[in-house]
User: Which sequence fits this backbone?
């Protein structure tokens, strides 16, 4: 159970870390910042209508006006401006200048103009508690408050706030209603389709924005495209009346020194100094033009899709990230799939923006990348675990060094989870316990198994130490192979096999002393060693598979082991074929030539040598 929990933790930990990273991105506002950046880029690339096609006109108080008339302006000048615009046929006139206190000798004149001229709208600011000019009728008052995002950029438009007093109407909406003499547009705000299109806290790319009131994404026209004249031009009669007739006019400051300007989505991408920030009077012009379009039957130029749309896209991105990280076996292929997925997500978000729909894609894009990386991390951890498991499992049948080499060459050695057939030059060591049947008759099964394992616990490490692999256990013996699973020098593998036989003799001698002291049966071995070529590879089915070694070499080594069983001059008899000795320096080994022997199943005889045991040998 504990092992299962460890495996489960190993699988879930990378994804747990991934989800924590994503939660941090969302909570930190980084994902919203990226969404806003994408929004700004799209707005700069998207074709916007010109302000010249709208009835909105701007009278800007520029630096030249300030030098000419001084600052603050005398209210007499504003009164004259309003009167001229009224005579030229303006439908509504908005004064985007605070006049809660009269300015100059003309203060009373302006207040009288506000009382008698129903076309004029004066502003107040709710957030800063700046009131409208005294005695201004409620139906001619409007707030000019703007909503700015956390990064200081103006993207949203506070169109209306329900449940407020009659004087509390947004400046653009008030101007539209004054011009048309009715409030039909306002009455549509709570009806379909507009009712579902107002911003919510998590609409579009926002995470948790303050969406109080009725807000929408500000539908910008081309920056700087609204007809604009200076106050001097207006007062000097330099504006053709035809340009004013039937229009909605805003009067406000455009002089940089007055600092009535705002950062917009166009700010960071504009190379023109005049577009670096947008004067407040022009911002209200964009707001007003958008309402004119909406009232005429148009729709929001930019609709922020609801949060459930992002949630659905997020789920798809999470699933895709896990699938890419887990399913694609090759890391390069997985990387390409991730890149394609990111391009698709960004292309989707950008394409929707260019068509007037804002859908958050930064968190889904981050989820795709982070969870793909989590899959890579999990697979990497699993691969390391698998490597240790393979080395441990193969380490029971081969040396750790060979197991490590096999892992390095796994891409070329393995095909569809199998070792394909390969022809290798090997040396086989076949061993069998002498008198096993008699011992097993005298001992209980558990004691018999313990007795055999006493020997195997000594023999197997010796084989591994000399670079061999225990290919199989035969119940009372074992088959060891030298020279697999990767190709090795036949001379070295033959030398290692004979050295293993010599070490086995020493191990049997040491074990004999222990068993005699415990009054247990002694364990004796017969060993046959032969060299040649074999076919190696995976044999079996998906339910059971083993590494098979097939060839005449195996049969010869087995026949050598069983040759003249009763002829034993030591407790560990090791017979070596002449074929194996031809691969080594025979003079290095104490040998006794038995001569040529016919072996069962073979037409040719085999010249056999016995490796002379030394009672003083140690393993």
Assistant:
């Amino acid at each position: 159970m504990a092992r299962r929990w460890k495996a489960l933790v190993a699988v879930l930990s990378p994804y747990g870390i991934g989800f924590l990273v994503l939660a941090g991105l969302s909570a930190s506002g980084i994902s919203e910042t990226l969404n806003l950046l994408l929004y700004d880029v799209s707005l700069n690339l998207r074709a916007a209508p010109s302000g010249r096609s709208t009835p909105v006109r701007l009278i800007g108080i520029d630096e030249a006006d300030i030098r000419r008339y001084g600052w603050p302006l005398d209210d007499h000048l504003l009164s004259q401006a309003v009167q001229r615009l009224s005579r030229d046929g303006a439908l509504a006139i908005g004064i985007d200048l605070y006049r809660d206190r009269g300015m100059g000798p003309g203060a009373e004149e302006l207040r009288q103009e506000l009382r008698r001229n129903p076309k004029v709208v004066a502003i107040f600011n709710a957030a800063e508690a700046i009131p409208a000019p005294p005695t201004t009728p409620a139906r001619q008052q409007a707030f000019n408050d703007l909503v700015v995002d956390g990064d200081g950029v103006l993207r949203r438009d506070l169109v209306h706030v329900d449940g407020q007093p009659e004087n509390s109407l947004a400046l653009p909406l008030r101007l539209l209603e004054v011009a048309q003499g009715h409030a039909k547009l306002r009455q549509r705000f709570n009806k379909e389709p507009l009712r579902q299109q107002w911003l919510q806290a998590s609409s579009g790319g926002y995470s948790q924005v303050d969406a109080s009131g009725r807000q929408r994404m500000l539908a910008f026209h081309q920056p700087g495209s609204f007809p604009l004249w200076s106050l001097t031009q207006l007062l000097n009669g330099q504006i053709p009346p035809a340009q004013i007739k039937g229009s909605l006019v805003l009067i406000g400051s455009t002089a940089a020194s007055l600092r009535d300007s705002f950062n917009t989505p166009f700010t960071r991408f504009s190379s023109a100094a005049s577009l670096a920030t947008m004067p407040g009077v022009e911002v209200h012009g964009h707001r007003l033009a958008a309402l004119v379009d909406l009232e005429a039957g148009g729709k929001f130029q930019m609709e922020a899709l609801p949060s459930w749309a992002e949630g659905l896209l997020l789920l798809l991105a999470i699933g895709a990230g896990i699938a890419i990280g887990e399913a694609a076996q090759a890391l390069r292929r997985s990387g390409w799939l991730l890149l394609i997925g990111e391009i698709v997500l960004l292309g989707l978000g950008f394409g929707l923006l260019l068509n007037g729909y804002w859908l958050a894609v930064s968190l889904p894009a981050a989820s795709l990348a982070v969870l793909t990386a989590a899959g890579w991390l999990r697979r990497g951890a699993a691969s390391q675990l698998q490597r240790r498991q393979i080395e441990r499992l193969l380490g029971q049948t081969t040396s750790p060094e060979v197991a490590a080499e096999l892992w390095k060459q796994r891409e070329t050695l393995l095909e569809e989870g199998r070792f394909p057939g390969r022809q290798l030059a090997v040396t086989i060591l076949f061993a069998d316990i002498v008198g096993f049947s008699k011992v097993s008759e005298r001992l209980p099964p558990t004691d018999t198994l313990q007795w055999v394992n006493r020997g195997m616990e000594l023999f197997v490490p010796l084989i591994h130490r000399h670079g061999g692999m225990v290919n199989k256990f035969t119940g009372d013996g074992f088959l060891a192979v030298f020279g697999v699973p990767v190709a090795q020098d036949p001379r070295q593998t033959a030398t290692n096999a004979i050295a293993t036989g010599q070490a086995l003799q020493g191990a049997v001698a040491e074990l004999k002393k222990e068993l005699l002291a415990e009054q247990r049966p002694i364990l004796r071995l017969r060993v046959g060693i032969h060299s040649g070529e074999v076919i190696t590879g995976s044999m079996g089915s998906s339910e059971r598979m083993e590494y098979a070694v097939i060839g005449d070499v195996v049969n010869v080594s087995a026949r050598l082991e069983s040759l003249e069983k009763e002829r034993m001059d030591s407790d560990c008899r090791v017979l070596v074929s002449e074929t194996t000795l031809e691969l080594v320096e025979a003079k290095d080994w104490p040998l006794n030539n038995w001569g040529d022997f016919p072996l069962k199943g073979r037409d040719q005889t085999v010249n056999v040598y016995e490796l002379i045991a030394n009672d003083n040998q140690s393993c």
